[in-house]
Specification:
With 73 residues, this protein is α+β, with helices and mostly antiparallel strands. It contains 2 helices and 5 strands.
Amino acid sequence: MLDFGQARLKLLQGKPVTRKGWRYKGRYILLQKSIKELQLPYFIMITSEGSCKIWDISQEDILAEDWVEVEFC
């Protein structure tokens, strides 16, 4: 398992990550790189239903050590 610093490195490599401790299974985080020059990159969450939304990290998530890279089949 990873802490958020290690998970962040995975995100920067374009790999999705999730937390083992999240109540809702099947959701994961991606880093969305900006297309526009003035816009900063941001995190998006893909939900178990397949929708996506902008994700704001919580203090609990920053301090968690149960991050894992998502493996797709």
